[in-house]
Every structure is written in structure tokens, then in C-alpha cells.
Amino acid sequence: MARNHNLNLASQGTSLKALFTGYLVVVAVGYLMAIVQIQLTHGLADGKYGLSVDDIVYSYYGNRTNSLLENKLHGSMKPMATDDEREKIISWVHAGATEEAYENDGIRQIFDAKCIICHNAEAGGAVPDYSDFKQIKERAVVDTGASIASLARVSHIHLFGIAFIFMFVGLIFSLAAGVPKPLKVIVISMPYIFLLIDISAWWLTKLHPNFAWFVIIGGGAMALSFAFMWVVSMYEMWILPRIREDNRDALLDE
User: Fold this and answer.
1) Computed over its alpha carbons, how large is the radius of gyration of the chain?
2) Is 142 helix (H, G, I), strand (E, B) or coil?
3) What is the DSSP code string of 196-239?
4) I need a labelling partner for 8 at 20 to 30 A (CA). Which of 114, 160, 211, 232 fits?
């Protein structure tokens, strides 16, 4: 006699578990790559490895004691040029960043050799085209952080993309029968609430640096909820069935 098929992760067939597991593993690797990318971009905004409040402030509010070029050369772009090349560019910025000095003092040669390979017209997105002197000049002024256009572009990408990812992670987790209903509701809702807090904090940090803390809180809470849903889902699919049969219905509000 066929046994009853219960609506929970532990009781699903191997094919469906393989589908869920494949998705969860790929998304987890993607999440780790996103963390690495954050460390290599925002995490180097203050010139030091590791994400800090200063990194968030410099990324969105800006480091208004220096130009954007200086801050990048001391931060995420530091490995891309030698100490002498960085010093030469910074001295050129302090001297007024004129086009004449750019052409005659060897600055253009540095940009051609070290910068334009990535910062060119074909790069697209928010990457500036340093083959155009005007765009270099715009970044030789006081650093005011991310532009409004850049924030709008990145915000809508993150809102759609991350919400879509958590929809499926949450759907899989909703079939976990071993989590109390109140906790399950909180954990499933957390990513959406803190995603809105995180994105809103980008814009607020643009206005005042103290809001940078909310960026860290929002991102950290999303990571915690993702980790919890991932671990519980994998446990109930592959470990729990080896311990006992699960007859509970995960979707019944008891």
C-alpha cells in the first residue's frame, strides 16, 4: 500500500528535492559571490579590507574631503596603479586637473595604460568612460558619493532581483514542518522588510552619513534570514527523513 504523501519537505520525492536543492545551492553560491563583490568594491572604499561604516559612508555620501579620483586611488582602485602613478594623478588633481597638464605631464599615458582597459565607452552601466577627458574632470571634484542616477538604477535592479530570489527561497522554506508558525512568518517576511530598509538607507545615507548603519543592519538581517531558511530547508529534505517519518502538514495553520 502506498503511504500517505504529506505536504512537507521531508516527504517530497527525490526529484523534487533535487530541484529544490539545486536551486538553493546555486543561490547560496551566488550570495557568497555577491559578498565577495561587495568586499572588493564598497569594502575597499576606505582603503582597507573589510566592510565598515566608513565604507558605506564613502560609497553613498562620499568622502567630501577629497575628490572621487583620490578616494578611488586610495580605495578600490589602489591595486591598479603604482605608488608613483597614484601620487602623480593626485598631484595633478590638486593642481587643478587641467586638460593641458593631462596631455603634457604624463597623466594621459597613465590613464591609457592602467584605466581605459576597463573604463571605456564599451563598459556600459555606471562605469565612466575615461577616454573622454570630460568624464575624468567630473571626477576630479569633491566626492559626493553615488549619483542619483546610479542609485535609481541599482535600486530597481536590487528590488526586483532580490525579491524574486527570496520568493522561491521562501516558498521552499514554507514547506518546512518543524518551524513554528509565528517564527516562519517572521523569517519569510524579514528579507522583504529589510530589503526596503537597506535600499531606503542608500538614499538616506546620500543625505546624511549616520544612516549608513541602516545599510549594514538591513543587509545583515537579509543574510541571517537567508541562512536560516537555507539550513532548515536542507535539513528537513535530507537529514530529517533519515531520523523519522514526518506526518505533519507544513501549510496547515494549526
Assistant:
1) 24
2) strand
3) HHHHHHHHHHHH-GGGHHHHHHHHHHHHHHHHHHHHHHHIIIII
4) 160
Per residue in 226-239, pLDDT (tens digit) is: 999 999 999 999 99
Which secondary-structure segment (H or E) carries 23?
Answer: helix 14-40
- The cell for 115 is 584605466
**What SS3 class is residue 67?**
strand
Residues 6+ apart with CB under 8 A from 119: 127, 128, 129, 130, 131
The CA distance from 233 to 238, in Å, is 9
Query: Strand pairing partners for 67?
Result: 142
Task: Tell me the CB-side half-sphere exposure of residue 234, using CA atoms within 13 A.
Answer: 12
Amino acid letter, 124: G
Following CA atoms 144, 85, 35, 51 in sequence, which dihedral angle do they give, to the nearest 10 degrees?
Answer: -60
40 residue type, one letter: L
Chain centroid to Cα 232, Å, comes to 24
> Domain map of the chain by residue range?
12-42+146-243, 65-138
